[in-house]
Amino acid sequence: MPEPSPAASNLRIDGKRLWDALMAMAELGATPKGGVRRLTLTAVDKAGRDRFRGWCEAAGLTVRVDAIGNMFARRDGRDPARPPVLMGSHLDSQPSGGKFDGALGVIAGLEVMRSLNDLGIITEAPIELVNWTDEEGSRFGNSLMGSGVWSGVYTQEAMEALTDPDGITAGAALDAIGYRGPEPARPFPADAYFELHIEQGPILEREAKTIGIVTGAQAQVWYDAVVTGQDSHAGTTPPSARRDALVAAARMIDLVDRMMRARGEDGRGTVGQLFVSPNSRNVIPGEVRFSVEFRHPDDAEIDRLAAQFPREAGFIARDSGVRLSLSQRLRNPAQPFDPECVDLVRKAASRLGYPAREIVSGAGHDAVYVARHVPTAMIFTPCKDGLSHNEAESIEPHEAEAGCQVLLEAVVARANQG
Amino acid sequence: MPEPSPAASNLRIDGKRLWDALMAMAELGATPKGGVRRLTLTAVDKAGRDRFRGWCEAAGLTVRVDAIGNMFARRDGRDPARPPVLMGSHLDSQPSGGKFDGALGVIAGLEVMRSLNDLGIITEAPIELVNWTDEEGSRFGNSLMGSGVWSGVYTQEAMEALTDPDGITAGAALDAIGYRGPEPARPFPADAYFELHIEQGPILEREAKTIGIVTGAQAQVWYDAVVTGQDSHAGTTPPSARRDALVAAARMIDLVDRMMRARGEDGRGTVGQLFVSPNSRNVIPGEVRFSVEFRHPDDAEIDRLAAQFPREAGFIARDSGVRLSLSQRLRNPAQPFDPECVDLVRKAASRLGYPAREIVSGAGHDAVYVARHVPTAMIFTPCKDGLSHNEAESIEPHEAEAGCQVLLEAVVARANQG
Fold this sequence. Notes:
The structure is a homodimer. Helix content of chain A is 35%, strand content 22%.
C-alpha cells in the first residue's frame, strides 16, 4: 500500500518540466512567427495526439479514446468505485493560433499527473486527463465539437457529416488519423471537471492578477445578418436613389457597439465577419452579410439585447431603404460553474498567495458544455496584451506554473474529499 | 455629283435595323441571364470586332486600326481637307455586363452611317465611327485604355504591360486577336466627337426624359483607406480595451454618406469595396481596408470634400483608438464638354420634340478623355431602373431610336457646318 497522501499544500509541480512540455508540444505545427497551426484532425493534430499519448503512457496512465476522438488518460485512485475527477482542455489550435490556447490546460494536467507520480501520491478518486476534440471549430465550422458531442449538445452523426473547405468530412478525418475510439462519446459518471486556460482577454494582466477564479460563462446570442439594397453605379446614382447596403450595415455595426457600451465593462458586442457584394470600387454595394454577437454574464441582459437589436436594426434598415434579414444562429444561457469546485480554486489561489480575482469567461470553453453534466470550475491565467487566436499569444513561465499549481491543488483536494 | 444634302431634320434612322444590329451584337458573349460577357481583347471581343468591321465594310466604310486596337470606320465627306467628325463608344463589356453599355453608341453610329447611305447623303466633312479598346477595364484593371492612350493620358507601353488574372499582357492579347494596327494611337485632327451612351443611372427614367444633354463629366477624388486596430477575442475583450477597426470603418462609411448628402442631389460619395481582417465571427477586426470615392460636377466641391474627409475621418480614427492610413488614388477635375457641340445635341432633341434635360455624366466615358483634344458632347438615353454593369441592364427600342436620331442630327449638323 502506498504512503498516505500529504496535504495538497505540500505538493509542488515542476515548472521547468511543464514549460519544456509546452514548448515540445508547440513544435508540432509551429509557424514562422512563433505561433501554432494545429488544425483539428489533421496530420499535425495526430502528431500532437500521438506525442501526448506517449507522454501519458510513459507516466503510467491508461489512455482511451471515444467515438469523437476525445482522449481520456486515467490515473487510478485508491477507491475504484469513486467516479473520476476530470481535468483537461484541447490540443487543437486556430489556423494562426498561439502555443497556449488549449495546450496549457492539457499539458498542465500532464504535469499534475507527473508530479503526483514523483511524489508517490495516490488520490482517493481516480483522475482523468482529457484532450477534447476540435474545440476551435476552425476547420469544420463548429466549435466545441468533442465536448459538445460528449455532453449531448451535438449528435455524433451531425458532427461527422460536417465538411472542411476541401470537402473532407469530420468523420473521414477522424478515421484518417486513427482517432475514432470504440466507446460512444457521452457523459459518464464523473465527480468534477477542472480546466486551466489562458484568459484570452486583458483583464487579469491589466489588474496584475495571476489567477482568474472563473465563476461561470457568459450568456450569448449570435445572429447572421443579411442587408439587401440595390447595387448601382457609384457615379451616376444620386443620393435620393441610393439603397446602399453597406451604409445601412455600417449603422448597424455602430449600433452593436453602442449597445455594448451601454452595458459597461461587462458588455460584449461584436461584428467580426462581413462580406460586401459585389465589392467593387465604383458600385454601390447591393448586399452585405455579417455576423453579430452579444455576450453578457447576465441572462436578463442578453434577453434585453436580443429584444432591442432586431428592433433597432430594423429601424435602421427601414430608414436606409434596405431589407434586413436576421437569423439567430446561437443562443446560450449563462453557465454558472459549480460553487464548490469554484471554491476549491479560490482556496488554492489564496493558500498559495497568488493575486486573484473572480472573472466570468468571455470565451466558449469545453468546460461550459461539460458543466451541464459534471460539477465544473475553470482557472484562468493572464496572457500578454490579452492576445489569443494569434501567433503572438504569449504567457510567462511563472504564470503557467501558478495556474498548474492551482490546478493540482484543486484536483487533489477534490479527489481526496471525504 | 450626288444630290445636295437635305436638312438634317428630314433624315430618319431605321429603328428596327438599329435594334436588330444591337441584338445581333449581343449574341456575341451572350449570358444565360440575358446579359453580355465580352471582355476586352478576348476571342469574344474579336468576334464582336470582326462582325462590326464586316458591317462597316458592307456599308462602304474604310476601317483602320491603331496600335492600341481602336477601330476607326470612315465615311468620306465632300471636302477631303476637312477634319472628320467622330462618333462612337466601345464594344467591350463588364464580366456580367448588359447589351447596351458601349454597344449602343457604336451600333447607333453604324445606323447613322447606314441611314446616310440609304438617303444618299454626302456630308461636307468626313465622319468616322470609333470603337475604343477596353473602356471597361475589367480585364486589365485600367479603364478607358484605348481612348486614354489615344489622348495621351496613358502610354502605349504602360498599357501593353498590364496583365490580366491569367498573367496575359494586354500587348499579347492585342496580338493574339490580330487587332494591333500599324498607326500609333494619338490624337489626329478631328472636328468634334459625339458619343451616345445609356445613362447608367436613374435620373432620366425618374423624370421621364428621353434624352440627356450631357454637359460634362464630374470631378472625382478616390482614396484607399486602411484602418488598423487590434484583433482580439470578441468574448473576452471588454469595451475599454477594444480597438475595433470595423467599428471605426463603419463610422467613416457613415461619414462618407453624410458628406455626400450634405451636397444635395449632385453629391456622390461611395464606399464600394471593403475587406475585413481576420474576418472571423468571434474575433474583433484588427484591420479593415476600403475604397472611398467622391464625385461632384464642381471642382470646388471636390476640393472641399478632399480637405474635409481626411480630417474628419482622422478624428474618427483618433476617437476610436485606431490608425487610419489614407492614400489618394485618383483625382480628376471636372471635364466640361464643348458648348457648341452640346448645343447641337440640345437643338436636335428640341427639334425632334424629345423630353430632355441637361445632365452631368456620373460615370467615366471615352468622351471624357477625347474631350481633352477634340470638341466633344455626349447624348444619354434612359436605362431601366438605372441599372448598368449588370446582366439585367435594359432599354426600350424607342429610346435607342431616339438617341440614335439625336446622334444623327448632331453629327450631320456638325459635319455640314459652314
